[in-house]
Amino acid sequence: MKGARRDQDREGVRERGDAVRLFYSYSHKDETLLDELKAHLKLLQRVGMLETWHDRRIGPGDEWRNAIDDNLERADIILLLVSADFIASDYCYDIEMKRALERQHRKEARVIPSSFET
Question: Which of 10, 30, 45, 109 could crosslink 103 through cysteines, CB 3.0-4.6 Å?
Fold first, then answer.
């Protein structure tokens, strides 16, 4: 019975469109780490439980700052892929991380920092 209940819950998420929105904040120098993490979370996307976004999804001609800001504001979870390159990036550290922590402080989103060595 518990397995059937889980299947119903998954279907409900997919039907209602209640996928959790995940924003990846990372340094482009850590793109290999991003790709590995995306592979681990792919099943959650496939079943409709997770919707992910990162800046490589910005199309040619799109306003990149607006795209990042919009998706950062809509995210339920903001995953910070923290590395030396992340900390060295003014944009990652001063803009994305600061905004993420502000949203968490106001209970608008959950921030998950993940530390990596590259």
Answer: 109
